[in-house]
């Protein structure tokens, strides 16, 4: 998690790294960029380089050495001199001491996620405000000296979420700067930052990421192939997180389509015409890889229904957003022969690849699934 994990943004990266090599470290920085453009990732790379004991000289400028004690701690975002402030969930919690166990647990895993991927910004459930208690606590910790004798950095994520009271308290901190502290405000809504605060910060506008850099990153991270990466990037409006979300949206659409196909296969007497037209849509609009993905999604969905039928409504499932639909499905078909149904799907994947006409494969699969799923129901005495 450092400069080489920054997606695009070469000009801004170079500018920040020059601050370090020139020894002109800002006291307060405002990184204003739209969601997913990488402002938080830049803040982290900058902070990690500043606290490193002996930064390495890269061709593009200084970078964390990754071997000193500071680097080892900052790599996992466990450095006591890098403080990250984020909104806490609504409730009476005003400082770290009042947090509920589950919130502490959520923070812990959010920090791990962001340490792994700086584009997964820490965002707690139901949290919309940075409150005055948090800023007071921050001020207290800044009044102590650095634990490791080096630079200290405060990163305020989504700084626009500071309440008015918090903003005013924070303004005082800016008015009495500590020589060894750099404060970085990150926001996608700079217009919501108190002007008295932003006027005391050096403001850097983080532009949207270039499409080609987004596509590159998607491929490099193994999230999709080049074609899909290019397509996705062109819809992402310069936001890497939006690009990633688009990829999963696509998966969701595919899942919706394949579950629709399954449901159609299970409809009453007149299901055939609609089934045939759905199968044609799927087979004509997609290549074999996509069809395999869809069948994989169908298998996951049935596996989840099976889990719920076996364990109960709270079973650990993959399609958590579909729990209600899966519970209904499990109610109706819970006694079905799921293992055989899954085998049928696996066989269909092989047939799709063996150059059998995908339309025939899919139709055969649907008819077999219909028989298997209703077989159990008629055995229970229910009618199709
Ligand atoms: Zn280091």
Question: What characteristics describe this protein?
Answer:
elongated; 384 residues; Zinc Finger, Delta Prime, domain 3; alpha/beta; 9 strands; Rossmann fold; disordered C terminus
Radius of gyration: 26 Å
Mean pLDDT figure: 89
Give the strand content: 5-15%
Q: In total, how many beta strands?
A: 9
As residue ranges, the low-confidence spans are: 379-384
Structural class: alpha/beta
CATH architectural arrangement of the largest domain:
3-Layer(aba) Sandwich
How many separate helices?
15
Euclidean distance between termini CA atoms? 56 Å
Ligands and ions found: zinc ion
Q: What oligomeric state do the depicted chains represent?
A: single chain
Helix and strand string, N-terminal first?
HEHEEHEEHEHEHEHEHHHHHHHH
Q: Which shape, going by the Cα principal axes?
A: elongated
Q: Can you tell me the CATH superfamily of the largest domain?
A: P-loop containing nucleotide triphosphate hydrolases
Strands in their spatial order, largest beta sheet: 4-7-8-1-9
The largest pleated sheet is described as:
5 strands, parallel
CATH topology type of the largest domain:
Rossmann fold
Helicity level, as a percent range? 40-55%
């Amino acid at each position: 998690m450092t400069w080489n994990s920054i997606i695009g943004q070469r000009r801004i990266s170079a500018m920040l790294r020059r601050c370090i090599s020139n020894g002109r470290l800002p006291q307060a920085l405002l990184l204003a960029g739209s969601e997913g453009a990488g402002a938080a990732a830049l803040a982290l790379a900058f902070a990690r380089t500043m606290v490193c004991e002996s930064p390495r000289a890269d061709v593009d400028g200084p970078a964390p050495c990754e071997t000193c004690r500071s680097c080892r701690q900052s790599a996992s975002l466990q450095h006591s001199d890098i403080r990250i402030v984020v909104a806490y969930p609504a409730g009476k919690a005003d400082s770290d001491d009042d947090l509920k166990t589950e919130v502490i647990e959520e923070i812990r895993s959010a920090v791990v996620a962001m340490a792994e991927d700086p584009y997964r910004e820490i965002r707690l459930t139901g949290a919309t405000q940075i409150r005055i208690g948090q800023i007071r606590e921050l001020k207290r910790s800044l009044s102590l000296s650095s634990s490791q004798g080096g630079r200290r950095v405060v990163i305020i994520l989504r700084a626009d979420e500071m309440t008015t009271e918090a903003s005013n308290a924070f303004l005082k901190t800016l008015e009495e700067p500590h020589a060894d502290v750099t404060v970085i405000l990150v926001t996608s809504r700079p217009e919501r930052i108190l002007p008295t605060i932003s006027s005391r910060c050096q403001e850097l506008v983080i532009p949207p990421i270039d499409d080609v850099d987004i596509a590159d990153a998607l491929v490099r991270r193994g999230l999709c192939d080049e074609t899909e990466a290019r397509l996705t990037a062109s819809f992402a409006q310069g936001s890497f997180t939006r690009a990633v979300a688009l990829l999963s949206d696509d998966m969701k659409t595919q899942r919706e389509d394949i579950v629709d196909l399954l449901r159609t296969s299970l409809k009453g007497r007149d299901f055939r015409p609609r089934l045939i037209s759905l199968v044609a849509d799927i087979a004509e609009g997609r290549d074999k890889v996509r069809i395999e993905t869809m069948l994989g999604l169908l298998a996951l969905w049935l596996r989840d229904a099976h889990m719920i039928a076996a364990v109960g409504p709270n079973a650990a499932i993959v399609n958590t957003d579909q729990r209600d639909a899966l519970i209904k499905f499990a109610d109706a078909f819970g006694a079905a022969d799921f293992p055989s149904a899954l085998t049928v799907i696996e066989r269909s994947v092989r047939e799709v690849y063996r150059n059998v006409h995908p339309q025939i494969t899919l139709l055969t699969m649907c008819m077999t699934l219909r028989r298997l799923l209703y077989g159990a129901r008629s055995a229970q005495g229910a009618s199709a």
